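Dear colleagues,

For the upcoming journal club I promised to circulate an example of a predicted protein-ligand complex. I picked one with adenosine-5'-triphosphate because it came up in last month's discussion. The inputs are reproduced below in full, followed by the predicted structure.
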Amino acid sequence: MARVRFSRVSKKYGNTEALRDFNLTVEDGEFVTLLGPSGCGKTTALRILAGLIQPTNGEIFFDDLNLTTESAAKRDIGMVFQAYSLFPNLTARENMEFGLRARKLSTLEVMNRVNELMEVTGLSEHREKYPHQLSGGQQQRVALVRALAIRPRVLLLDEPLSALDAQVRVQIREEVRRLQREFGITTIFVTHDQEEAMSISDRVGIMEKGELLQIDQPRKLYDNPEHTFVARFFGKVNAIEVQPISSQRVRLWNKEFDTSSNSTRRGIATKSWALVRPEAIVESKEGEGAPGLIQEISFLGPITEIQVLVGKSDLITMTTSSNAVANRKIGDRIWVKVDAKELFVEVE
Ligand code: ATP
């Protein structure tokens, strides 16, 4: 196991800056997810860590050892990719044993390690099948066992679940997390699925255009975004127009809010938007907050999502677990307010 560190890493492809001054430390045994839109540099970061490509600038450390120029083979990394990438002419068992045989371990050791992992991933009965005879989920489990069997210092997972259907995705992501905890293995997981990132990570790093904007525990990232991009990308938000009152206060639906501590506001804006989570909008007493008309009601099990047209143009989404609100009908009038101490304000 290892603590890994990117120090001021950048990567240029011609004019494209795939990574820009990228700094990240992943602690020994930690599970960190890199989350961001397509093309933001997630895969580039993993490939540089794995030694598959060289950075244009910057350094890579494993514990305190500088491995920037070390070959991929010497880094002891297990990788699982989006495409199943199994050897089609080898059985599931042979695929799982591949890395161990390449390392010239004894037959007994190879058997023991693979058998143990097959057991915990439920693959034992499929061991003699070829990849084309396995489901997508089973193939990804084989790829995961192959990566773990070598007992790598670091496990890198590049969108390993994206080709799977929703139910299998959830099952396998829970398995990945359980195995990662059991083995205490330092893991970096790449995805553009925010729910996936929220559910399994110790910390999530949000990337945009080659930069790591913010990294924190999922809950903290959700509650305290430091960038509008993070607020918008990690969890749902409503963007509602506000009237600035002073450099640190805005008015939204007849109520003033302090924006001093988490705002990106600089000076007084002429027009800005408050970013408000759906669960921070609640029903209020008549005359308090703002009146609206219910446009859409979606029952989602434990919560109900309601779209409300507030005033002339604010179409907002609120979520509630209250039956009183959830039992309303489309076209009903409702008074709503923002139930938050502070707002995240974005200046145009
Ligand atoms: P996705 O979620 O779509 O896989 P990503 O966040 O993993 O995206 P990267 O694959 O790291 O993004 O790519 C980052 C940027 O670098 C992109 O603009 C991409 O086009 C560019 N890029 C990546 N590899 C190369 C390459 N070999 N040659 C030129 N440009 C590249």
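Two points we might discuss: The two ends are 45 Å apart (CA to CA). The longest strand covers residues 16-26.

See you all on Thursday,
B. R.
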